[in-house]
Write a structure and sequence with these properties.
GO terms for molecular function: flavin adenine dinucleotide binding; sarcosine oxidase activity. This is FAD dependent oxidoreductase. Belongs to the MSOX/MTOX family. Pfam families: DAO (PF01266). By secondary structure, this protein is an alpha+beta fold. The chain folds into four domains: 175 residues, FAD/NAD(P)-binding domain; 126 residues, no CATH class; 117 residues, D-Amino Acid Oxidase, subunit A, domain 2 (D-Amino Acid Oxidase, Chain A, domain 2, 2-Layer Sandwich), CATH 3.30.9; 36 residues, no CATH class. Helix content is 28%, strand content 23%. It contains 15 helices and 22 strands. The strands form five sheets. The protein has an eight-stranded mixed beta sheet, with helices on both faces. Strands 9-2-1-13-22-21 form a six-stranded mixed beta sheet, with helices on one face. It starts with 10 loop residues before the first strand and ends in a 6-residue tail after the last helix.
């Protein structure tokens, strides 16, 4: 793998101004790198990271969940603890007038600590939540992960001013189960403001930004005769040579870097936004003072995977769906289909079932979905980030694979990315998890050839009607009834 660490006087290009690009630029500039230039096609100075103004990146949003809860993945738990301290420092700086961005004031905040509630519809806590409680306690964060069904934890939540956040959907009052864990360290980031603040700070430390539909839009890499990456060409035809090019392009990264095939792909999440009228009695009960961010059955597949927020200052109440990570494959120049950057019917169905059960007040007041959005993520196959030098491409580095859970690290992930660029602390578990990798393939421990299988001829329990239907199904589709297929539908070899 070709690796290169740029010197403080070398030119560094960053393509992308989402949280990875912003944080990388900010921390490189803080470390004294003198020639950092960030390119992107959105004029964020004007649009202010608002998707109401046409911004299309995943980082351009009204809010994002902040949480420490990571089950057994303690590398992200520790990273989250570090991030939350940085978010609080940003709030403190704003409050005291330190480097306040034009348009913001000492009354602004970028992190709201209203808690983050992880809910199940079962009667017992899932393994993930139990592991979160255990690992946070062992890390010294006692009484931060509060189990909704434990009376002592209910008292602790009340003492923290988060009593209502333990049962924001009033499940107990309705005689329904309310099982989950409130992460009292969590809440949400005001995403658009936070990105604008990070961009402002990076500029103040000396990073340069080219944010323009043409001049900031990536076209191609500039390569040397031996294949090294020595810069980029933009849509205006201008070349920008650099010792190191960092690709941080969110959902577009896999289509720009074919090397990511089988490692990362762009996937779609669906977002539904309700508008709470200022005259509504729900304004208080759905405000951050009483209502937390929440996740509902997020590891339960297609029929779960919901998350949501309190209403914001404008009355927008956001609910998102990630139960299925949808893709949109399109043929590329090399003939290979890749998922690129329409609300999805399955997502709408899950939300339509959830709201009457958990937020019936919305229907009672006649409040329906006001607008929708598809949010494009870049998912790695294992949900770990990809932060590493691109193999066999000297001068090229990638930061991607955010997998829907990276925004919370806006204040601090750049420091880790810069360490990875410089080769600092490379044995740390997080850095190891983010290295370039491949699917396990045929030799992997999860491959079917390497695990015990059960003979379906013994266990299928198919009835005669089941078998007859199976044979008819195969014949109507001109599918050959091979021995493996016979076993699938419950036929023995003698049939």
């Amino acid at each position: 793998m070709s690796r290169q660490s740029a010197s403080k006087n070398d030119r560094i290009n960053i393509v992308g101004t989402g949280i990875f690009g912003l944080s990388t630029a900010l921390h490189l500039a803080r470390r004294g790198y003198k020639h950092v230039t960030v390119f992107y096609k959105q004029p964020y100075y004007i649009t202010q990271y608002s998707y109401f103004n046409g911004c299309d990146g995943a980082s351009a949003d009204i809010n994002k969940i902040i949480r420490s809860a990571y089950g057994s993945q303690t590398e992200y738990q520790h990273l989250s603890t570090e991030a939350i301290a940085s978010w609080k420092q940003w709030n403190s700086d704003l409050e005291h007038g330190v480097d306040v961005l034009e348009g913001m004031s000492s009354n602004d905040r970028v992190f709201i600590q209203c808690g983050s509630l992880n809910l199940t519809d079962g009667d017992a806590l899932p393994d993930f939540e139990r592991a979160t409680v255990k690992n946070m306690e062992e890390a010294g964060h006692r009484n931060t992960q509060l189990v909704t069904t434990e009376r002592e934890h209910q008292k602790i939540a009340t003492s923290k001013g988060m009593g209502s956040a333990m049962d924001p959907f009033l499940r107990s009052n309705r005689g329904k189960p309310n099982v989950g864990v409130l992460d009292s360290t969590g809440g949400f980031a005001i995403a658009d403001k936070a990105c604008c603040l990070a961009l402002h700070q990076a500029r103040n430390f000396g990073a340069r930004f080219v944010l323009d539909l043409i001049a900031g839009a990536f076209d191609s890499f500039v390569t040397s005769p031996n294949g090294d990456t020595i810069g980029i060409t933009m849509k205006d035809g201008k070349q920008h040579l650099a010792a190191l090019t960092i690709m941080a392009c969110g959902g577009w990264t896999p289509s720009l870097l074919p090397q990511l095939d089988s490692l990362c792909e762009a996937t779609a999440g669906s977002v539904f936004i309700y508008k709470i009228p200022r005259t509504s009695k729900l304004g208080d009960s759905l405000s951050p003072k009483q209502f937390p961010t929440w996740l509902w059955k997020v590891r339960d597949g297609v029929e779960g995977g919901l998350y949501g927020f309190p209403r914001d200052e404008e009355g927008y109440l956001k609910i998102g769906y990630r139960g299925t990570k949808y893709t949109n494959p399109k043929p590329q120049e090399d003939g290979i289909e890749r998922s690129l950057i329409k609300i999805l019917a399955q997502a709408m169905q899950v939300v339509r079932r959830f709201v009457p059960e958990y937020l019936p007040e919305l229907e009672e007041e006649g409040i329906d979905v006001a607008l929708t959005r598809v949010c494009w993520y870049t998912d790695s196959f294992d949900n770990h980030f990809v932060i590493d030098h691109v193999p066999n491409k000297r001068g090229l580095f990638v930061t991607t694979g955010r997998s829907g859970h990276a925004f919370k690290y806006l204040p601090n992930i750049g420091n880790w990315i810069d360490d990875a660029i410089e080769g600092v602390g490379s044995t740390r578990p997080a850095i190891q998890a983010w290295k370039w990798r491949r699917l396990e393939g045929a030799k992997g421990a999860r491959a079917l050839a390497n695990v015990p299988l059960v003979d379906t001829r013994v266990t299928t329990g198919r009835t005669a009607d089941d078998i007859a239907f199976g044979i008819k199904y195969l014949k109507t589709r001109d599918i050959e009834c091979t021995e493996p297929m016979k076993r699938i539908i419950g036929l023995s070899a003698a049939n």
